[in-house]
Amino acid sequence: MSTGQRAVLDIMGVNAVCTVWPNEGRSGYGQVSFGIPYTIEAEFKSSNGTTRNASGTEIVFSSSFFTEEDGVTTLIKDGDRILNGDNTAELNPIAAGAYEVLSVDKSSPVLEGDLNDLAVRA
């Protein structure tokens, strides 16, 4: 999210927070295991489209989360779960209705000196 976007959201009083549940791999029984959820500043947009994931496979996504690359957001990866709002009280992302992260796209910042922009597709 650019500085300009954040300023507009601050003026509008929009709480642009999303919750991320990190995928920690599979348990001994083959079940996907998720870590402790954490929040990031991000703008949510419901939109359908196609993109390519890290392995180059074309995927169809239904939601986008826009944020800036920082120490926390660089941890987001394919297979994590993400949901609009602060949902950290729910430890199970499936029960919360969280989307699976399908790709994380990085782009250059709009303004010089800003952090790189990230588009998380789910």
Write the layout of secondary structure elements.
Elements: H1 3-12, E1 17-21, E2 23-26, E3 32-34, E4 38-41, E5 43-52, E6 58-68, E7 81-84, H2 93-96, E8 99-100, E9 103-107, E10 117-121
Antiparallel strand pairs: 1-4, 1-7, 2-3, 5-6, 6-10, 7-8, 9-10
How would you describe what is shown here?
- With about 120 residues, the protein is mainly β.
- It has one domain (about 5-120): Thrombin, subunit H, CATH 2.40.10.
- The chain contains two helices and ten strands; from the N terminus they run αβββββββαβββ.
- It has helices at about 5-10, 95; strands at about 15-20, 25, 30-35, 40, 45-50, 60-70, 80-85, 100, 105, 115-120.
- It has a four-stranded antiparallel beta sheet. A four-stranded antiparallel beta sheet has the order 5-6-10-9, with no helix packed on it.
- Strand 5 (about 45-50) and strand 6 form a beta hairpin.
- The longest helix is centred in the N-terminal third of the chain and has 10 residues, at about 5-10.
- The protein is globular, with a radius of gyration of 15 Å.
- It starts with a helix and ends with a strand.
